Amino acid sequence: MSKKTYFFLILILGSLTALGPFSIDMYLPGFPAIARDLHTTAAKVSLSLSGFFIGISLGQLLYGPLLDRFGRKKPLFIGLLVYIAASAGCAFSTSINGLIFMRIIQAIGSCAAAVASIAMVRDLFPVKDNAKVFSLLLLVVGVSPMIAPTVGGYVTSAFGWQSVFLILTGMGVAILISTFLWLPDSYKPDKMLSLKPKPILLNFWAVLREPQFYTYALTGAIAFAGLFAYVSGSPLVFMEVFHTDEKVYGWIFAFLSVGFIGSSQLNTLFLHKFTSEQIVNFALICQVIVGFTFLAAALNGLLTLPVTIGFLFLFLCCIGFTNPNAAALSLAPFSKNAGSASAMMGAVQMGMGTLISVLISMFEVPSATPMVAAMAGSALIALMVLFIGRRNIKEPVEIQQGADAGFVH
């Protein structure tokens, strides 16, 4: 594969992966404006974020078998069309319940892009390169939290929150056109794969009972839940506790994303000297230390705006190391039906995100403590799952070698 082709594939797959994060981050500065216009509270508006996570969790399980049965591109195109229609629907919502519903549909559409992009990494690149490719995708994805909230803050301020969803509609159209024209077919449809419920469930069960998969998928998902806690809680913390406006919040969010992006790119360098297993271990331990130090500061009233930003920066750096390595280790045992494996991994991750975002939305107190407690707790539980689950991995599949796994048809 030439460097030009490699770069182009990363760019297209990155744009697919970034669609979901843009849909999450871009409207965050508009929470107060949405609450005012739809006559509700910011906490109720945050349920539209939880609804998005629910849609992604359900949608990934739907698209996994479809991507294996019909190939990558047809289900991807259908998902993008659903996303475009739902994004327009969000822009014209007149009630909070209507917005929550359209966000669920929007998420179901967007997760086709997320599942397809992850599966195509496994299709198009050697297993030994997967962790590096995931890190490069995080670079593209990482641009979204740098750009999206900042742009969203200015757009909301100038044109209203509805314009954010119109921009997302346009993005969906642009990505649909680019994938149609330039994304190669990477997987031959498996016409023997049944779409009946029983074989699909057996297929997912074959993925779930692989010790390496459930250990690293669950570890990565729980650790990543700390990011969802931050995303869900940050509008309240920054705009209501520290009284920043939409534009300042966007810039803070962008700055904090540098930690996540920078560490994910340093990960590619670390992989030359350390294994993914070693990096996950060290990053999770650091994440626990940072999380509980952050929590101690919150409980003792020591959090100022700069201190809060500093702790969040360090915490997100840890996730930037944990996430790509855990993802690569989760998928390493699978080559055939990687779509089902990637869908299950994504569903577990988004399921954890849904749970933690709903918990955050239940606390309407003007305090950073609920968000910080959720972040610290997620890190500790992830570390415990890693240590316990690793005992069940009798023959670990090294990322440098890869292996095929059998599935039920």
How would you portray this structure in words?
This is Bcr/CflA family efflux MFS transporter. One of its GO terms (molecular function) is sodium:proton antiporter activity. It is a multi-pass membrane protein. Keywords: Cell membrane, Membrane, Transmembrane, Transmembrane helix, Transport. With 409 residues, the chain is mostly helical. The chain has helices at residues 3-25, 31-37, 42-70, 73-91, 96-124, 130-159, 162-182, 197-208, 211-241, 246-270, 276-299, 305-331, 338-361, 369-389. The chain has a single domain (11-392), classed as Up-down Bundle (Growth Hormone, Chain: A), CATH 1.20.1250.20. The chain starts with a helix and ends in a 20-residue tail after the last helix.
Short précis:
The chain is an all-alpha fold and 409 residues long. It contains 14 helices and no strands.
